[in-house]
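Hi U.,

Before I forget, here's the chain from the pilot set. I'm dumping it here mostly so it's searchable later in email.
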Amino acid sequence: MILKGFNELRVFLETPKNIVIIGHRNPDGDAVGSTLALRHYLDKKGHTATVVMPNDYPDFLHWLPGSDTTYRFDWQNNQSQKAIQKSDIIFLLDFNTLHRVGSDMQNTLEKYPNDFVMIDHHQQPDDMKYMYSDVSICSTSQMVYQFIEMNSDLSLIDKDIATCLYTGIMTDTGSFRFRSTTSLTHRIIADLIDKGAQNDRIHSNVYDANSYNRLLLLGQALSNLQILPEYNTAFITLTDEEKKRFDFQKGDTEGVVNYALSLKGIIFAAIFIEDKEQNIIKISFRSKGTFSVNKFARNHFNGGGHDNASGGRSELSMEETIANFSSLLQNYKTELETSCEI
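Structure:
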């Protein structure tokens, strides 16, 4: 764990400040939940806090309390820039390096004259003046809860904060099934329920809001599933044409890679999604046991994340990317065979 400068930060925040809170590009449930929860908390402390996201997030997260006040840097650029320029400090949540916000927003942040606070659980974070970094914690939302606890302010957690934090923890732990989910995580979840988080409603809002086209897209993805049994590996592909055929919306592929990982004997899974607008193949990796997809993504696909969940990208074609991926597996055959989860 890295805990840097927080006594000084606590003193800095003793008087009202203008604060901007930023999550990563293509924000997921943890990025949205943690940023909104922190905004509600800071507002209750007398600050003026604004969430600025690099771009939009999936429809199934737009119901979260405070979502309607969030700025999008790509769409509401003037408002976003003004909020950043007025701010006394910026919180960076759920990402470990500035390039995770996209090049346009990165350029703005690199010119920012004041200080950053990083609260994040990804490996190899950039150095900031104020840092709370812990790769052992399952989600940034849990870290925000613990940040509030460090400030002796758990009594300030109301239903809105609890709802946002519960959503972030639930989505980043695969509904509490990943290995990073600890007994402490469950104790925190119990407290959030006591403070007003409605677990059944939250789960339904996130996971039971499928459109007809999203289910058809899932069917297409599963029909593209391929298994490499000699490497305990499975992968899924989705082309741009297939996405368009089923009216792809942001968030429609969330969690699809886990279907590949759910196969008996599979410890390494990937999904390759063509994005012709950016001219890349977006990749999500998942694993069980000791096989680190973080290292795999960093070494070969310009990515990274966690040991059992990471992302990457390829600038090759889909066919070339799959061929490259498949050829790399022979170098990891022993690791894949000896994972503790087989």
